[in-house]
Write a structure and sequence with these properties.
Blueprint: E1 2-6, H1 11-22, E2 26-31, H2 39-48, E3 53-56, H3 62-71, E4 76-79, H4 86-91, H5 93-114, E5 118-124, H6 147-165, E6 170-176, E7 178-180, H7 199-207, E8 214-217, E9 229-230, E10 232-234, H8 235-249, E11 254-260, E12 266-267, H9 268-279, E13 285-288, E14 297-298, H10 303-309, H11 317-330
Helix pairs in contact: 1-2, 1-8, 3-5, 5-6, 7-9, 7-11, 9-11
Bound molecules: nicotinamide-adenine-dinucleotide (NAD) and uridine-5'-diphosphate.
Nicotinamide-adenine-dinucleotide binds near residues 31 and 36.
Amino acid sequence: MNVLVTGGSGYIGSHTCIQLLSAGHTPIVVDNLCNSNSLVLNRIEQVAGTRPLFLKGDIRDRAFLDSIFATHDIDSVIHFAGLKAVGESVALPLKYYDNNVSGTLNLVSAMDRAEVKSLIFSSSATVYGDPASVPIREDFPTSATNPYGRSKLMVEECLRDFQQANPDWSITLLRYFNPVGAHESGLLGEDPQGTPNNLLPFVAQVAVGRREKLGVFGNDYNTPDGTGVRDYIHVVDLADGHLAALDKMTHQPGTHIFNLGTGQGNSVLEMVHAFEAAAKRSIPYEIKPRRAGDIAECYADPAYAEAQLGWKAIRDLQTMVEDTWRWQSKNPHGYC
Ligand code: NAD
Ligand code: UDP
């Protein structure tokens, strides 16, 4: 299939392009490079043997999108492009609503004009808010505690309404748990700009000597060791989840919602110790107060995705931290 991949030079998008190419699909990457580097395209080519077509531009640019759909015979769109920093979204909510919500509406309108009727959207487990219990099923209630989460929830609702009004469309909402890891080649990985917000990139930068120590946000949660528990999923498993959705859902009209997680929860300290074993060095850390908005535990029930998509995550925690360490140690300053 010819697949338009918005945000395709970003962390998850780049790994998905590799999996698409190896499965015989043709990804066409659209990205404005606001949070990624065009060197990623070289790395994709090095790994996959083919360089995807790269079109630099913004999904909020109507003429740009119309020209793409007019020039290329697109079968389906995988939509990663968006902003994802929770703290920044609190400070700059309009930037998030404009980019994530208006950007998506602009994309869907362009698809509609071009009669491209299959969309896979990057949603997040953040739409479950603070769940009443774990593991989390797709039919749990949704809520949001910050503008980033609200932007994902708004897009989900807009897409659901749009699909109901256009019943021949296939719209798949993939709710990611915590993507981590890197390509096994060590050529692609996560390259956050500035101070990492997420746990594993921070740990990796401590291990490689870019940061002095990790702050562990709270050790008084109601969890086995008191630190927060999350469902960490290898980015290549996540990418494969998109391929399964493309394969199974493109020709299935409806709004389809799937959790992409492993079903297993690990604490902050378990992640630190697993990383220490992979990197063969200690990770200094100090306990800090809880981070505002954090919850104690969050992990998926992945059964519905497995039943419907025939997909499940197969890479274990050791692989996640080893691959992260290979990427970070080979590229201590990321793509540069
Ligand atoms: P990323 O920042 O690495 O990738 C997003 C890409 O989109 C970047 O390359 C950026 O330059 C591009 N982009 C942003 N706004 C754009 C615009 N208006 N026009 C064109 N390109 C634009 O992030 P990621 O981790 O790969 O995340 C991909 C998607 O998955 C995002 O929508 C994110 O919200 C969602 N998500 C990520 C996580 C996570 O922890 N990484 C978890 C849940 C959901
Ligand atoms: N965390 C931490 N220190 C950090 C970053 C994160 O202790 O520097 C904790 C955070 O409190 C949460 C877990 O690590 O319990 C995962 O956080 P992350 O930001 O990676 O993902 P989230 O689940 O919040 O989206």
